[in-house]
Design a protein that fits this description.
single chain, 434 residues, alpha/beta, TIM Barrel, 2 domains, eight-stranded parallel β-barrel, 36% helix, globular
């Protein structure tokens, strides 16, 4: 046990879970996570995935650096069957950070070298993971330079106040939105040229495509009714599908925004999956066969999408409640499309107990793959340990302490200064010193 994590055994964990509005699935056998997963047109060595976690360590032009390469080679040697590469911007103005990855013709060689390095490192361990790239437009969270440069899709009282945007801050015009699908398509084609296995058309965490989901008051064609609000996302998906050949078409989407917007919220702010499940049905109909469902935004309500033991504010709910909401949301989407591969997210807070909980979710038909994000920063070889030992080492697990995020918010290159101290403790001190 430790501060912020009061569970000394899995029995204690489940004993505290009985009356939660989103109870955890019954525990399962961690061996389930070692079994292969068959998708439509692809196969995973096991049911373990590296989630797309940004580290903000590209060069000024968006190309991977030595820091980027080190992270992904560690992931590759770690044994996960799926590596979901972090957000890669489709244009300079859509970058969330001056050091966010961005793919372009000018840096294609560096991205190809990264993919080849992942393949070589993994083959040294006797396998080759599936590697997909997350493509993003950061929208209202864009910051390609030193200062924020929000590209707002619509008004949000909560987010506008949080970002201190004046009422007359511009709303992106329809003509500008019409140019976005071609940006995604061009980036997708470059990803395939670089040797990646597919692309994710990202629509989560209230970035541009996700923010439009709640643009109820925006006029058509990109606001108002459901079909209009999802229009840009569908156009981006269609544009990418046309350019990736036989590559995997994936998406990471929000099922619930929490108190940042009304998307996916029902009475009392509870999760309402009526429209979100319509969204994923539209994605599946368009050929998306790999889906990663999440919630909230790290900029406004990180307790919703990353339940934590310690962070920037005391969460308004027990972290285990947020974990349950994320897993039950994934379960609802997976049950609606049994043949699609859904990746469960948000269980990092559970530390060494995460494998049993995620295995139980998979065994009950609530997901096909277990994803680890912050946990992979701290513990890149978690998959190898799970497959060999059937458990995770408590001394290597992520503490969900938020220091990796603090580095990023302070302008540094993100990683784990606790478990990867030789590399990231100096970086933490560099950007957070008084």
């Amino acid at each position: 046990m430790s501060a912020g994590f009061p569970y000394g055994s899995i029995e204690e964990l489940y004993a505290s879970n009985d009356t939660r509005p989103y109870p955890l699935p019954p525990p399962g056998d961690p061996a389930t996570l070692s079994r292969p997963v068959l998708g439509e047109g692809f196969a995973l060595r096991n049911a373990l995935a590296i989630q797309p976690m940004e580290a903000c360590d590209s060069d000024a032009g968006g190309a991977p650096t030595e820091w980027t390469r080190r992270r992904y080679l560690r992931f590759a040697r770690g044994g996960a069957g799926l590596i979901w590469v972090e957000a890669v911007a489709v244009s300079n103005e859509s970058r969330a950070n001056p050091n966010q990855l961005m793919i372009a013709r000018e840096n294609l060689r560096e991205f190809r070298s990264l993919r080849e390095g992942i393949r070589e490192a993994a083959r040294g361990e006797g396998f080759d993971p599936i590697v997909v790239v997350q493509l993003t437009h950061s929208g209202r969270f864009s910051r390609p330079g030193a200062a924020p440069a929000p590209i707002r899709a619509w008004t949000s009282a909560a987010l506008d106040a949080h970002q201190r945007l004046p009422e007359d801050w511009p709303i992106i015009a329809d003509d500008e939105l019409r140019a976005v699908p071609s940006q995604f398509a061009d980036a997708a084609e470059l990803c395939m040229e670089a040797g990646f296995d597919g692309v994710d058309v990202k629509a989560c965490h209230l970035y541009l495509l996700n923010e439009l989901f709640s643009a109820y008051g925006r006029p058509a064609p990109y606001g108002g009714g459901f079909e209009n609000r999802i229009r840009l996302h569908m156009e981006c998906v269609d544009a990418c599908r046309a350019r990736i050949g036989g590559g995997i078409l994936a998406a990471r989407v929000n099922l619930f925004d929490g108190d940042a917007s009304p998307w996916g919220a029902g009475e009392g702010g509870r999760m309402d999956l009526t429209e979100p499940l319509r969204l994923v049905a539209e994605l599946v109909a368009r050929g998306v066969r790999l889906l990663n469902v999440t919630m909230g935004t790290p900029y406004f309500n990180p307790h919703v999408n990353r339940p934590y033991a310690s962070g920037g504010y005391p969460p308004p709910e027990p972290p285990i409640e947020g974990v349950g909401r994320l897993l039950r949301g994934c379960e609802a989407a997976q049950r609606a499309h049994p043949n699609v591969v859904y990746v469960a997210t948000g269980a990092g807070y559970l530390r060494r107990f995460a494998p049993e909980v995620l295995a139980g979710l998979i065994e009950s038909g609530g997901a096909k793959v277990a994803g680890f994000g912050r946990g992979a920063f701290a513990y890149p070889d978690f998959a190898k340990d799970l497959m060999r030992r059937g458990s995770m080492d408590p001394k290597k697990c992520c503490l969900t302490c938020g220091l990796c995020t603090k580095i990023m918010r302070s302008g540094g290159r993100s990683g784990c200064p606790v478990r990867d101290a030789e590399r990231y403790k100096p970086e933490f001190r560099r950007v957070t010193k008084p």
